[in-house]
Amino acid sequence: MHFNVTIMKFSKTLVQWYLQNKRDLPWRKTQNPYYIWLSEIILQQTRVDQGMAYYFKFVEHFSTVEKLASASEEKVLKLWQGLGYYSRARNLHFSAKYIVNELNGDFPDTYNNIIKLKGVGDYTASAIASICFNEATAVVDGNVYRVLARYFNINTPINSTKGIKEFKILAQELIDPKNSGTHNQAIMEFGARMCKPQNPDCEICPLNASCLALANNKVKELPVKENKIKIRNRYFNYLVIQTEDDKTTLVKREKGIWLNLYEFPLIESLQPIDEKAIIEHEVFKEFFNKLNVSIQLFNSSMLPHKLSHQHIFTNFWVIKTPASSKFNLNWSEINNFPVSTLIDNFLKQYKTN
């Protein structure tokens, strides 16, 4: 194989395909690094069709990095609500303030400086540097791993230390230094739409004559991934306070996956627990000591909420209680607070009951 010829042909074929088949996406109509950064952070672990609405929402509310920097964290988290992986939003906000306060509002313009932003890794820094500043830094995301593993018939696990290094070196060798931004977008789009995880369109693929996985009947086997991390089960019991004068309370979460989001008072247990265990728990006693309350389970079965590394099984216990100075949040104001999808889904059901 004449590798240099293969490299030139590979990039040229991908770019030709991309220019004819690319989706009309709003962040492809700009080279403004702030907008590209915004789109890349939103699209991490988010489908394009879901991320689009959030992208428009953020651009509308925060048209410049200065506006994002000056916003409250609560407003940023509220706009992010439903996207998950909330550390992305917190890092986005932190980095916006860093750009404004430390860099005079000037977005960093090299890979080495972009990757210093909190929440920005190799992939995002490479995408921004190549698309906005034409720096020849190759992107490697899930789509790129899949295209390269199949085309070059590579069995190295993509989530191993060796694999991450091997695929980055290969992607860097393949990039067209004169057209790096378009090349990067082309290979990502190709993976998303042609070389798909399931049922790729091999028959009409412009690279099918030279794809080694296709020649060796290994398309379905590639890319290779090492065993996933063990899933942890957690059991949440939320105390939904409903006073006679239509008040409740929310608590700001101080750690974990939903840091700085709001939720009802929580009792977490190692396994499912019943009403008796709830009433005897110190969290329950702290809130309802000496109050005459009634308790009722809202959901008929435990509600599963599946995240990448953990499954959360939840019960919502509705606690009806007399008016108390402890509980002073009007139910009508509850939608102003950023909450997890789990809480948001409950609130929608609770209102309709």
UniProtKB/TrEMBL annotation:
Its EC number is 3.2.2.31. InterPro entries: A/G_AdeGlyc_MutY, DNA_glycosylase, Endonuclease3_FeS-loop_motif, HhH-GPD_domain, HhH_base_excis_C, HhH_motif, MIG/MutY, MutY_C. This is Adenine DNA glycosylase. It catalyses: Hydrolyzes free adenine bases from 7,8-dihydro-8-oxoguanine:adenine mismatched double-stranded DNA, leaving an apurinic site. Pfam families: EndIII_4Fe-2S (PF10576), HHH (PF00633), HhH-GPD (PF00730), NUDIX_4 (PF14815). It comes from Lutibacter agarilyticus. GO terms for biological process: base-excision repair; mismatch repair. It comes from the Bacteria. Belongs to the Nth/MutY family. Signal peptide: none annotated. It is an enzyme of class 3 (hydrolase). Binds 1 [4Fe-4S] cluster. Adenine glycosylase active on G-A mispairs. MutY also corrects error-prone DNA synthesis past GO lesions which are due to the oxidatively damaged form of guanine: 7,8-dihydro-8-oxoguanine (8-oxo-dGTP). Keywords: 4Fe-4S, DNA damage, DNA repair, Glycosidase, Hydrolase, Iron, Iron-sulfur, Metal-binding. Its cofactor is [4Fe-4S] cluster. GO terms for molecular function: 4 iron, 4 sulfur cluster binding; 8-oxo-7,8-dihydroguanine DNA N-glycosylase activity; adenine/guanine mispair binding; metal ion binding; oxidized purine DNA binding; purine-specific mismatch base pair DNA N-glycosylase activity. Residues 42-193 form the HhH-GPD domain.
